[in-house]
Amino acid sequence: NSWSRYDALQVNYTHRWSGGLQVLASYTFSRFMDNTAGTNGWAQANSVPIRNNYNLAVEKSVDAADIPNSLVISYIYELPVGKGKKFCSNLNAVTNAVIGGWQVSGVSTFKEGFPIGVVGAVNNTGSFGGNQRPNLVGNPTVANPTIQEWFNTSAFAQPAPFTFGDAPRYMSNVRAPGLQNFDIGIQKWFYWREILKLQFRGEMFNAFNRANFYAPDANFNDASFGRISATLPPRDVQFGLKLYW
Question: How far, in whole angstroms, is CA 53 from its chain's centroid?
């Protein structure tokens, strides 16, 4: 029978300072275990196959979506400049319309990487009714992972014919690179009496253009096995105007 268990501890923190800064922080410590990965395609996800269709108990491992540590911080800060603010409070209407009423907001995300599952052993199980994964013959971790060698590829070997291989579905000690991402927005409000207001907004996703690397190649038969060759999207900037009436 399929089985899953998700345990999580979440801590939330919210604070608003008198200076106009509001912060919401959420930290989650969790563990997601199962022996299948859903009902689609006979419980296969991310191309990691079930070995023995008649013994799901040996498939128990962390789930493909297991992220043990996650921290998300969101904030909004109204700059203390302009009419009625701490600085430059006596500006005339024209000057205040230019330098007053600005806000800065953002979301900063820090997540541990998801687990890696090695696939692609030549399936020579014969008529057993299952699939093969490589044998785990050594320590798959490396002291200083690089994009050329994210894990120890020599720790895996082709299993003998008519055996399933013993590498787990997903390895909790071998994970894709984590995520460190900063999305930042700036907003400016323009008011005309009480009937119209206009918002200018600029948004930067991955504001610092940080290279967040994708998962390494986990196919045992590939020449690029263990290497990282892709990243998540680079910085993206967009602007917008919104009129309220």
Answer: 31
CA dihedral 39, 42, 48, 49 (to 10 degrees): 150
Residue 142: partners with Cβ closer than 8 Å, 6 or more residues away: 149, 150, 151, 152
Quick one: three-class SS letters along 200-222? EEEEEECCCCCCCECCCCCECCC
Structure tokens at 71: 């921290």
Residue 19 CA to residue 29 CA, distance in Å, equals 31
Residues 30-43: tens digit of each pLDDT: 999 998 875 444 44
Unique residue bearing structure tokens 């939330």: 12
> Is the separation of the CB atoms in 181 and 206 below 8 Å?
yes
Burial class (CB in 10 A: 0-12, 13-18, 19+), 171: buried
User: How does pLDDT run across 157-193, given as a tens digit for each residue?
Assistant: 998 888 888 999 999 999 999 999 999 999 988 877 7
Residue 111 pairs in a beta bridge with: 70, 179
